[in-house]
Structure formats: C-alpha cells, structure tokens
Amino acid sequence: MASSPTPPPSSSPLPRTAVRGLRIAAAAVFVAALGFGGWGLWRVVAPGSGDVRTQLAGSERDGRTQAGMIEQLQQQVATLSRSDQISRDANRDLQGSLAERDEEIAGLRADVAFYERLVGATAQRRGLAVHALRMQPQGDTAWHFTGTLTQNLNRGAVSAGRFTLLVEGTRDGRLQKLSWDDLRQMPSAPGIEYSFKYFEQLEGDVFLPAGMTPVRVTVRLVPRSGAVVEQSFTWAETISDNGASTAAK
C-alpha cells in the first residue's frame, strides 16, 4: 500500500516579545539618526563657543580703546580751553598795561609841555597865576580840590602867601555865594599857605550845603607882598577829567 505525501512544514508566528524588541530597536535607530542630524546642523549653523568668547573679548577691547580715545579727547579739550583762557587773560592784562602806559606817556608829555611853557627859553613870562583847578566829589556835600599855582616872571624868587576859594551857585532858586569860611565850615578859617619858585600844587576839602548847584568857583591868592590875584573857572570845567586850566574871562 502506497504511503501518502508528507505536507510541507508551516511557518509559526514570531513571539510577541520579539516583535516588540524590533519596534523598539527601529525607534531607537530613528531617534539616533534625528539627533545626529540635528547635531550636525547645529555645528554648521551656530557659531562655536570659542567664537563667541573671541567676539566678546574683541568687543570689550574695542570699548576700552574707545573709552581711552574719549578720555584723551576730553583732556585735549580741557587743555585747549585752559590755554585759550590763559591767552585771553594775558591779552586783557596786556591791553590794560598798554592803556596805562599810554596814559602815563600822555601825562608825561603834558608835564613836559607844562615845564617848557613855564621855564623854557621861549616861555612867556607870567607872574603869580592859577594854572589849573580840579574839584572831585568825596560825598554828598564834600569836595576835594587840587590847585596848581605858577609864576616865572621872577626866576629864582619865592612866591608865598595864602590860597582860598569862593563858590557861586543857586539854592532854592536864589543866587548864593559861599566864602572860604562857609566852605570850610569854620569862622575865620585860615587860607592854605603856598611857597614856591616856579609851581606848586595845593590840596584840600570844602563843603557845599545840601541842595546847592555850584556854577562858578574863584581862586583868591593873597601874596605876602604884591597885589591880590583872583581867577575864576566854571564849575563844569573844574569837574572834568583834566580839570580847569583856562581862566574864565
């Protein structure tokens, strides 16, 4: 009796644990591939930590350099400002010195001209006279006077005597004359003594009553010998910068 053919062996299904292990392995490989790709992309796109530190150090170095340059510029500006101020001060002092020197030269020239007119070979011979009179305010009612007396008629001779003033003006709409006693505010006030050969300056103080407007001042010279000399000047002339030097006619 013939034997029946043997059936082919049938494949049995994989165990569940094996299938789960394959799935986990495949997932692990996929995740690893993604991680490696991301790491590579970050290396290409993002700068390295060394580059960041280098850039930070460069920025700090540039900041320090710029701060140093700013400080140097500020010091230069301060130095230039001080130099400019020093130059301005020196120039102002120089201008002041030049002005003072010009004033001194003008005064010396005036003095030389005065001496030449007085004692020069071509000087006009004149007897006792008032060359100049100047009045300067000292307060509300006080005035300081400076009078210059001259004579060159008698060379070498001494002129001596007393100097007094008389002031004319208005007060409360009325004409008023102030004598030497009134001006000195004392009865029988003595005149200022003078004694010179060619010239002399006399100084003193007088007092005007409040509310008086002076108009004219007269110098009275009483020599020890000879005639009395009187010369009048307008008040405006006596209070000018140079004082009155021309007798009013």
Distance between the termini: 192 Å
CATH architecture of the domain at 129-238: Sandwich
Q: Please tell me the overall pLDDT.
A: 81
| Helix count from the secondary structure assignment | 4
Beta-strand content estimate: 25-35%
Structural class by secondary-structure content: alpha+beta
Q: Which class of the domain at 129-238 in CATH terms?
A: Mainly Beta
Q: Extract low-pLDDT stretches.
A: none
What is the CATH T-level topology of the domain at 129-238? Immunoglobulin-like
Helix content: 40-55%
- Gross morphology is rod-shaped
Please provide the count of β strands. 8
Describe this structure in words.
The chain has 249 residues and is an alpha+beta fold. The protein has a domain at 129-238: Immunoglobulin-like (Sandwich), CATH 2.60.40. The chain contains 4 helices and 8 strands; from the N terminus they run ααββββαββββα. Strands 3, 4, 5, 7 and 8 form a 5-stranded antiparallel sheet that branches. The protein has a 3-stranded antiparallel sheet with strand order 1-2-6. β1 and β2 (142-150) form a beta hairpin. The longest helix has 71 residues, at 49-119. It is rod-shaped, with a radius of gyration of 57 Å. The termini are far apart. The mean pLDDT is 81.
